[in-house]
Design a protein that fits this description.
45% of the residues lie in helices and 16% in strands. By secondary structure, it is α/β, with parallel strands linked by helices. The strands form three sheets. The protein has a six-stranded mixed sheet, with helices on both faces. Strands 6-5-4-7 form a four-stranded parallel sheet, sandwiched between helices. Strands 1-10 form a two-stranded antiparallel ribbon.
Length: 328
């Protein structure tokens, strides 16, 4: 474990930015459903509202941020094309955003990214370039790729327009549910929880915002505990969307200010939550999307909140992998 270099001063994200992103996404992104379940409520001992971003375009919340950022580019920038790096969901989101806006996308993806995510990204028309996530630095590779080809780089979380776009998921949830005691959000690079916390704390200052990470990839928890960005080895976890080693430069200070706690879950608990979501909620969640349910069902939330909102961030998992993980 090591401390990451100090980040230069970075722009923050305001609630007004989230509101503007919501207007930009209106009629483009889906307003995803919020599900409730008496069985889930009984298991958790609280009233739970599940924001189902597995029903978002590309099957995950990432479309919100990618489209918001791409839609703010000038005509000249769009003409150059877009680049991104991602293990899968931001890859698909950027590819689709590029197609919607009439431009092209080149996506850097790890060699071991889920096959379904690679195929979907290519299906949206993007060119895919691969790398080894365990030995190569995707940020450096992505920046070099964009520079070499003259593309505009849209990173998966360290971009104010991406963060603002992601925050619209929590905005929609709270518009539907009203005041909540807690909002529980999966954490990878920190963009979803940074945008969500920005919206939630603006609307309901007393709400408790809790992030969830896999035990093998607890970089955000360690960083918040230490007061500085910490780098851990690239985690090996089934939650590929959360398999990151360092919190974002932009997202970390936002989360330092607004996030109240981070809970950790094991891969086995995530699988149990995936199975529960399939059998009782009748929805398919990928491991990263199910981590929030895993935290609730394992009793990891402190303070006994009575009304809880959770963002189930995505459902991009193919049938074979789902069966491998959830089959007994």
């Amino acid at each position: 474990m090591s401390a990451a270099p100090s980040a230069p001063s970075a722009p923050s994200v305001s609630f007004a930015d989230v509101r503007e992103a919501a207007a930009r996404l209106d009629g483009v992104a889906h307003r995803t459903p919020v599900l409730t379940s008496r069985t889930l409520n009984a298991a958790v001992g609280a009233e739970v509202f599940v924001k189902c971003e597995n029903f978002q375009r590309v099957g995950a919340f990432k479309f919100r941020g990618a489209y918001n950022a791409a839609a703010r580019l000038s005509a000249g920038q769009l003409a150059k094309g877009i680049a991104a790096y991602s293990s899968g969901n931001h890859a698909q989101a950027t590819a689709l955003a590029a197609r919607e806006l009439g431009t092209t996308a080149v996506i850097l993806m790890p060699e071991d990214a889920p096959r379904s995510k690679r195929e979907a990204t290519a299906g949206y028309g993007a060119e895919i370039v691969t790398y080894d996530r365990y030995t190569e630095d995707r940020t450096a590779l992505g920046e070099a790729l964009a520079a070499d080809r003259g593309l505009v780089l849209i990173p998966p979380y360290d971009h104010p327009d991406v963060v603002a776009g992601q925050g619209t998921a929590a905005l929609e949830l709270l518009e539907e549910t009203g005041s909540l005691d807690a909002l529980v959000v999966p954490v990878g690079g920190g963009g979803l929880i940074a945008g969500s916390a920005t919206a939630a704390k603006a609307l309901h200052p007393g709400i408790r915002v809790v992030g969830v990470e896999p035990e093998a990839g607890d970089d955000t928890k360690r960083s918040l505990d230490s007061g500085a960005r910490v780098t851990v080895p690239v985690p090996r976890t089934i939650a590929d969307g959360q398999a990151l080693s360092t919190p974002g430069e932009l997202t970390f200070p936002i989360n330092q200010r607004l996030v109240d706690a981070i809970s950790l879950v094991g891969d086995g608990e995530i699988v149990d939550a995936m199975r529960f979501a399939f059998e009782r909620l009748k929805i398919v969640l990928e491991p990263s999307g199910a981590s929030v349910l895993a935290a609730l069902m394992a009793g990891r939330l402190e303070g006994a909140p009575r009304r809880i909102g959770v963002i189930a961030s995505g459902g991009n998992i193919d049938a074979r992998r789902f069966a491998e993980l959830t089959g007994r």
